[in-house]
Write a structure and sequence with these properties.
The complex is a heterodimer of chains A (about 150) and B (about 240).
Chain A: H1 3-10, E1 42-43, H2 48-51, E2 59-63, E3 75-80, E4 83-91, E5 107-111, H3 138-142
Parallel strand pairs in A: 1-5
Antiparallel strand pairs in A: 2-3, 3-4, 4-5
Chain B: H1 3-22, H2 40-47, H3 49-54, E1 69-71, H4 83-96, H5 110-119, E2 123-129, E3 139-144, H6 148-165, E4 175-176, E5 183-187, E6 191-196, H7 198-204, H8 206-212, H9 217-221
Parallel strand pairs in B: 3-6
Antiparallel strand pairs in B: 1-2, 2-3, 4-5, 5-6
The chains are: A alpha+beta (about 150), B alpha+beta (about 240).
Chain lengths: ~150, ~240
């Protein structure tokens, strides 16, 4: 696997961004795995639960797969604003299959227990290969405004 | 009523609707009769052939244009005519009309789907032709129902007709959202149907999103996201 190689090459990088000059004084390791327990995620729909600020970022507390690794299309349980909420992964930082998009943030769409999305619109691009996966993604694809 | 008679009725409804299209009458609101209690549409056709030209008919799609056709099906009282005699007459008419010979639908197209939705007394059928740039599907249909049971019945009937008409190698289609009572979807590959209750339809406003794409009002009211001040851009992560 290329993961140990990646972590070795990117560990100990001092990154300087172009517009805002901040220098990191600690080392950064690359993405280790996709989405698992305790990962902080970004909620990308327009639900009030996902968009109101809170002093803690939403975190994954359980991944509903056989192994605890969540990829695009897997359901997870989040802890948001002190409550538990189910969500669907729509993009992660880990590189996936060839010719599938890789995102710069771990994106997640909030979902009710019956599968209905909590928000009504999604601005962030959603990967179209979700359609081929086994599962109920038509509702999320119906409220998406951009596809990748 | 078993499935075969219903599908035959559906096919004859489809034929008659295609025939009406051919007469060149397009695009206005029509009162579509209750197709369940015997076929009123072919009976209309047989008894009032000249008046069909004047009778306005809703056209579901125009393959050349990418416009939205929204139709409102209202139940009418035209089922008061006795349908027994007319049914035999209509079947004879169809056998004799070899000039307007349209083969019965062998493929599950959008016409078949919309005619079956009409037959099921669907409320507010909305067919949207999705532009080519969006590689999602060709047609996006939103349908309302009277109750959760009505939605489930429509969805199951659509699946039944699809299974009846599909070829051997075509994949089966499943109903998504079976445990959600207010919103169910079926993805047929080139078509996607959403069965919703009117309340959830108001909340989500899918027709607005799919016709207006990025000019949708709900999208505009979402606050634009800005990067936080302490954002640090990571270097490239390549495999």
């Amino acid at each position: 696997m290329a993961l140990p190689l990646l972590s070795r090459s990117l560990a100990g990088l001092l990154v300087e961004s172009s517009s805002i000059t901040h220098q990191r004084t600690f080392s950064v390791s690359a993405v280790a795995a996709a989405i698992q327990k305790m990962t902080r995620v970004r909620v990308v729909d327009n639900s009030s639960l996902g968009n109101t600020p809170y002093h803690r970022a939403p975190r994954v507390i359980h991944v509903y797969t056989q192994n605890g690794i969540g990829k695009v299309g897997d359901k997870v349980l989040l802890a948001i604003k002190g409550q538990k909420k189910k969500a669907l992964i729509v993009g992660h930082k880990m590189p996936g299959d060839r010719m599938t998009p890789r995102f710069d943030s771990n994106n997640v769409v909030l979902i009710e227990d019956n599968g209905n999305p909590t928000g009504t619109r999604i601005k962030v691009p959603i990967p179209t290969h979700l359609r081929k996966h086994e599962g109920e993604y038509s509702k999320v694809l119906a409220i998406a405004s951009a596809f990748v | 009523m078993n499935f075969l008679t219903r599908s035959k009725k559906l096919i004859s409804v489809f034929k008659s609707s295609v025939l009406l299209d051919r007469t060149g009458v397009l695009r206005s609101v029509c009162s579509v009769p209750k197709a369940r209690k015997g076929l009123c549409l072919p009976s209309l056709f047989t008894t009032h052939v000249p008046s069909c030209q004047h009778r306005r008919h809703v056209s579901t799609l125009n393959l050349d244009t990418k416009r939205l056709y929204s139709e409102i099906c209202t139940e009418s009282d035209e089922s008061t005519k006795s349908t027994g005699v007319f049914r035999e007459e209509s079947q004879e008419m169809e056998r004799d009309s070899s000039a307007l010979n349209q083969r019965s639908p062998e493929k599950f197209t959008i016409d078949v789907l919309v005619s079956l939705l009409r037959q099921e007394n669907a409320v507010d059928i909305c067919v949207i032709k999705v532009p080519e740039q969006i590689t999602y599907s060709e047609y996006f249909i939103v349908v309302s129902g009277v109750s959760p049971r009505h939605l489930r019945a429509m969805a199951l009937y659509a699946i039944k007709v699809y299974k009846f008409l599909k070829k051997e190698g075509a994949p089966n289609v499943k109903i998504e959202g079976k445990d959600a009572e207010d919103w169910m979807c079926i993805d047929f590959g080139n078509m996607v149907v959403h069965f919703m209750l009117p309340e959830s339809r108001e909340v989500f406003e899918l027709e607005k999103l799919w016709t207006l794409r990025k000019y949708d009002e709900q999208l505009k009211s979402m606050p634009t996201e800005t990067l936080p001040e302490d954002f640090i851009y990571d270097g490239k992560v390549t495999k």
